[in-house]
Amino acid sequence: MTEIILLLIFSFLLIFYTFFLISIYSGLRKLEKSDEDKIITEFVSIIIPFRNERENLPANLKSLESQDYPNNNYEVIYVNDSSTDDSVEILANKIKTENIKVISVPEKYIPNAHKKRAIRYGIENAKGEIIITSDADCNYNNNWLRTLLKYMDDKTAFISGPVEFEDNGNIFGAIQKLEFAGLVIVGAGLIGINRPTICNAANIAYRRKVFDEVNGFYDQFGLSSGDDELLMQKIWKETNYKIKFCPEKSAIVKTAPNKTLTEFYQQRKRWASKGLFYKNKLLVLKLILIYLFYLSLPIQLILGIIKSPVYFITLAAGLILKILVEFLVLKCGIILLFERKILRKFLPAQILQIPYIIVAGFAGTFGNFIWKERKVSR
Questions:
Q1: Which domains does the chain have, with CATH numbers?
Q2: 8 A C-beta contact, residue 162 and residue 191
Q3: From CA 22, how far away is CA 28, in angstroms rounded?
Q4: Closest residue by Cα to residue 181 from 27, 342, 328
Q5: Closest by Cα among 8, 26, 373, 362 to 189
Q6: What pTM does this model have?
Q7: How far out from the chain centre does Cα 277 lie?
Q8: Which residues have C-beta within 8 Å of that of residue 212, sequence separation ≥ 6?
Q9: Which terminal residue of the chain, N or C, has fewer Cβ atoms less than 10 Å from its own Cβ?
Q10: Mean pLDDT of the region 107-111
Q11: Would you state the pLDDT for residue 377?
């Protein structure tokens, strides 16, 4: 009897995960590119929070200064969040245009909110009706700003843009590049079916008045992460504005992959730390079921060894279906946004994916991680 119950549970988790992936595929097929090339009338403020980014800031600044967008239509605000290196001095010496400035967050300003406090302080000092956030370790195509903003209209309040890891010439970096592309693709697909769930703060745009309307990060300052998707979910739930994904390669923001396995683990643990704090409890339940599906895979392997070979059959069926449907979804999204060659690391990425989701997902629930040389507690 116990064996039958377990097999039914494993089958249910597999079916649920398969239908989840199919919904992503459906959402990707619904995404539409905009043929319109326009400069929006609203003034735009790009906010770049940073802490100890002396090595990355010069390249970031250069790619922002080279945007194919009128300088009098946007500003860039670099927000120093308690840097202990010479990042501020480096920026101050390299800025060449009047629409770019550097400000520093006061020490006692929302002290435990970290990145959110930097963004909030940037917004308070911004002139823009449209807020764009990104990160100091990112680089941009010359048409990034123009492409992203052409998706903003009167009925839209939030735009999620694509983010990509750069090539670093090693296998670990290539696997991360594909795995990260998968997360972007999942976020795009969910927006495509009007179920916005995940996005990346390295490439988002939103209306300032709507940010204020939903009280911004007010109920999130206790969380060190979530300045992107928690805000997107609030706007979707509490307003009638549209949430859009920008499905264009020229809007891709590029950043470097993690250099070590430890950095990768800390990053994914930080991202996982906010999942249980989604206001949509049905969404939380879905995430738990997805996590349980991944957890069921090693459990079936163990049960197959110590209990019955029948669990090897259900494990094999689960892995095969998972691999096939995930490949279908990835291929659809990669054709839309990325280079097809990144699919070459699909099988090695599958090997890394299962243990990292199980470990990082569990560890993230405790909310403690290292980020920007800080020990952070949720």
A1: 34-170+194-274 (3.90.550.10)
A2: no
A3: 10
A4: 342
A5: 26
A6: 0.90
A7: 16
A8: none
A9: N
A10: 69
A11: 54
- Strand, coil or helix: what is 97? coil
Contact 266, 363 (CB under 8 A): no
- Whose CA is closest to 146, among 231, 38, 9, 53? 38
CA distances for 301 relative to 2, 294, 315, angstroms: 16, 12, 7
Mean local confidence (pLDDT), 116-132: 94
Tokens in use for 326?
């995930």
Say which amino acid occupies 290.
Answer: I
Q: How far is CA 180 from CA 3, 175, 294, in A?
A: 36, 8, 18
Per-residue pLDDT tens for 277-324?
677 788 889 999 999 999 999 999 999 999 999 999 999 999 999 999
8 A C-beta contact, residue 266 and residue 370: yes
Contact 234, 118 (CB under 8 A): no
Q: Are 245 and 337 in contact (CB under 8 A)?
A: no
Backbone angles phi, psi at 366, to 5 degrees: -90, -15
Query: Strand, coil or helix: what is 92?
Result: helix
Confidence band of 275 (pLDDT split at 50, 70, 90) = low
